[in-house]
């Protein structure tokens, strides 16, 4: 059975769109951890966050432990997956972690903030998230993919890495 493909990165980095595209190409199941949590709890991420961030993060960590047992699955994670190392440890048991590294300026062009609890006060917060989390995303990643090109090209880079072929270019095995 193939290892899971775990996509991490900031809100708006392209994880869900790329994950669905990868799923169509290689036939693995696609899951989005936020949607998985909403289905399991019957509550929206916004509602869970309103109860308290710790409350949400506990539910999120439990979800990653469940997801870690899946096989042949592409996982689009929540942007905060790296806030707890236990999440990454669990997901790496049967998964390779790909950091989708996208410039904040590109993200702000493409997303709106209304249903995003962390961005409800505006885009400024995403600059802070980038500063807070960049090192965490880099440390967690087995492989870094720069999202500054068509998503089909990112998908090709990830598939090449996944099948063990390796590839020259901006995507690179993470030396950290
Ligand atoms: N390389 C790209 N070219 C064109 N559009 C892109 C690219 N990367 C991302 N996008 C667009 O950016 C938006 C955000 O992408 P997406 O929803 O996949 O991000 P995400 O990481 O899943 O974010 P979140 O989970 O926080 O919603 C989408 O409209 C997507 O189509
Ligand atoms: O970046 C984050 O911390 C979050 C991202 C979303 O995917 C959700 O998981 C939630 O809104 C928290
Ligand atoms: Mg998403």
TrEMBL record:
Transmembrane region(s): none
Gene: aroK
Main location (coarse class): cytoplasm
Biological process annotations from GO: amino acid biosynthetic process; aromatic amino acid family biosynthetic process; chorismate biosynthetic process
Organism of origin: Trichococcus patagoniensis
Single GO term (MF): ATP binding
Enzyme Commission number, as recorded: 2.7.1.71
Entry keyword set: Amino-acid biosynthesis, Aromatic amino acid biosynthesis, ATP-binding, Cytoplasm, Kinase, Magnesium, Metal-binding, Nucleotide-binding, Transferase
Name of the protein in question: Shikimate kinase
Family designation: Belongs to the shikimate kinase family.
Function: Catalyzes the specific phosphorylation of the 3-hydroxyl group of shikimic acid using ATP as a cosubstrate.
């Amino acid at each position: 059975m193939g290892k899971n493909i775990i996509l991490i990165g900031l809100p708006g980095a392209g994880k869900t769109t790329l994950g669905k595209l990868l799923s169509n190409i290689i036939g693995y199941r696609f899951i989005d951890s936020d949607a998985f949590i909403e289905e399991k709890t019957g509550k929206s991420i916004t509602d869970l966050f309103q109860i308290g961030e710790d409350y949400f993060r506990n539910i999120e960590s439990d979800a990653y432990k469940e997801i870690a047992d899946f096989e042949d699955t592409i996982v689009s994670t929540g942007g905060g997956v790296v806030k707890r190392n236990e999440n990454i440890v669990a997901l790496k048991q049967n998964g390779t972690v790909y950091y989708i590294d996208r410039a904040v300026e590109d993200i702000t062009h493409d997303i709106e903030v209304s249903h995003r609890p962390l961005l409800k006060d505006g885009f400024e917060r995403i600059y802070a998230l980038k500063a807070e989390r960049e090192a965490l995303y880099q440390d967690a990643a087995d492989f870094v993919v720069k999202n500054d090109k068509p998503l089909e090209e990112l998908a090709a880079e990830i598939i090449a890495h996944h099948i063990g072929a390796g590839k020259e270019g901006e995507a690179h095995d993470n030396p950290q």
